[in-house]
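Try this one yourself first.
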């Protein structure tokens, strides 16, 4: 009986690990696909559908890269963040002076995504070792002052082969760049993968 349980346990662990690796690579692949779209950086407020709402497909900011990639693996961050904020509003930043949730914009703010990922146990250690940032990971940066940024680590390497590249939108559309350590990292997450 113990031997059968041990075999079943090992099989389950391998299945879960394999699924995690597949999901990480899927998120990485979907993020790379986003770089093929022509998107203009546009931080405007948009009234969008709920759930599964999105800003116009030719517009977006850094958070929209993350939101769109997760949607492709079946995760609606708009809905998940909205529901968590609605139930736990006091746990989220009060940077924008809101007194209630706003399903059109809450998920499109880096500090809210960081809070959500932390609350869901997705936080990973921040390090200066490039090998710690695997494909499918989410990285957040402080660009200076109160300006935050977010991107997805993908399965493509820098020219020197030392770092995974990032898909993000810092003003030039949804692009692939070697920018992991260009700014101060303030968040590292693996959400549901």
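Now uncover the answer:
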């Amino acid at each position: 009986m113990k031997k059968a349980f041990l075999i079943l346990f090992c099989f389950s662990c391998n299945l879960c690990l394999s699924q995690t690796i597949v999901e990480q690579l899927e998120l990485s692949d979907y993020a790379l696909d986003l770089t093929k779209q022509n998107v203009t950086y546009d931080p405007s407020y948009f009234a969008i559908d709920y759930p599964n709402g999105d800003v116009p497909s030719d517009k977006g900011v850094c958070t929209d890269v993350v939101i769109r990639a997760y949607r492709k693996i079946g995760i609606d961050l708009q809905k998940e963040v909205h529901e968590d904020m609605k139930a736990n509003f006091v746990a989220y930043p009060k940077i924008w002076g809101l007194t209630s949730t706003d399903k059109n914009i809450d998920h499109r703010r880096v500090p809210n995504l960081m809070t959500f990922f932390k609350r869901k146990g997705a936080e990973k250690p921040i390090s200066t070792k490039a090998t710690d940032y695997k494909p499918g990971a989410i990285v957040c940066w402080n660009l200076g002052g109160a300006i935050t940024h977010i991107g997805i680590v993908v399965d493509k390497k820098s020219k020197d082969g030392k770092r995974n590249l990032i898909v993000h939108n810092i003003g030039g559309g949804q692009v692939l760049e070697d920018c992991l350590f260009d700014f101060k990292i303030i968040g590292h997450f693996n959400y549901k993968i």
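Discussion: Helices lie at 2-34, 62-72, 77-87, 110-119. The mean pLDDT is 91.
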